[in-house]
Amino acid sequence: MNIPRREWQSALCALHANEVKEMAAKLTRDVEVSDVALPHGGLGLLTLRDGAFHESFYLGEIPVARSDVMLRIPGGEEIRGGAIIVDDRAQFARSIAILDAVLTGRFPGWEQAAILIERGIGIRMQKDSERKQMLAATRVDFSLLGQEDEDE
Asked: Considering the entire predicted model, what is its pTM?
């Protein structure tokens, strides 16, 4: 799998939450999972920078969920995983954090998680393509507006 780690979370978010949760539960049957910090969800302020004066302003609130987990396999090996997602479901974020740890540590079953991520990337690419097609369909050519006045 050649997908960078920074894209794993968004790929998993493109999939149905139950599918991600089931895969995380399946891959951690023989693994001790402990929360480094309790998973939680809430609201975060979306900050943007003004293009003219370069001053920060708050655009609004967005849902955010965060989880940080530690996996320990029977042999004693440990690896941490984490997730911060634009969603308010803390348990969904925890499942993503578990899969992040499984993939990072190449724990048993990581290939199944990699397949899930590749499928999520495919779904994300398809949605991006659909959005681009919709944007292209709504594009307006304003170059012809001023020509009527010039002809008279």
From this structure: 0.82
Residue 123 in domain: yes
**149 inside domain:** no
For helices 90-105 and 17-27, the axis angle rounded to 10 degrees is 50
Give the number of domains in the chain. Answer: 1
Q: Domain for residue 103, yes or no?
A: yes
| Residue 95 buriedness (CB in 10 A; 0-12 / 13-18 / 19+) | buried
Q: What is the pLDDT along the chain (152 residues), one digit of tens a residue?
A: 788 999 999 999 999 999 999 999 999 998 899 999 899 999 998 888 888 888 988 889 999 999 999 999 878 889 999 999 999 999 999 999 999 999 998 988 899 999 999 999 999 999 999 999 999 888 887 777 766 655 55
Task: Provide the domain limits for residue 21.
Answer: 5-132
* Domain-located, residue 150: no
- Domain holding 71: CATH number? 3.30.390
Contact by Cβ (8 Å): 68, 97: yes
Q: List residues bridging with 80 in a β-sheet.
A: 70
Give the pair of three-digit tokens for residue 48. 């943007």
